[in-house]
Amino acid sequence: MSIQAKAEKIQQQSAPVKQKKAVPKVEVPPEQVKYANLLLYCSWTGIGILAVTFALYMGGVITGYVPKTEIAQYWGLSVHDYLAATGAPTGWAWLSMLNHGDYLSLVGIAFLALLTIVGYLFLLLPAYLRKKDVPYFTIVVLEITVLCLAASGILKVGH
Amino acid sequence: MLEGLIAKASILMEMASNSQVAHAVTQASGAPGTPWWVWPLALFITTFVMGILAVMAGVGGGVLFVPIISSFFPFHLDFVRGAGLIVALAGALAAGPGLLKANLANLRLALPVALIASTFSIVGAFIGLALPANILQICLGATITMIALLFVFSKNSEFPKVGKADAVTKALNISGSYYEPSAGRPVDWTVWRTPQGFLIFIAIGVVAGMFGLGAGWANVPVLNLLMGAPLKIAVGSSKFLLSITDTSAAWVYLNQGAVLPIIAVPSVLGIMLGSLVGVKLLAVAKPKMVRYLVIAMLLFAGIRSLLKGLGWG
Question: What's the pTM?
Answer without folding.
Answer: 0.84
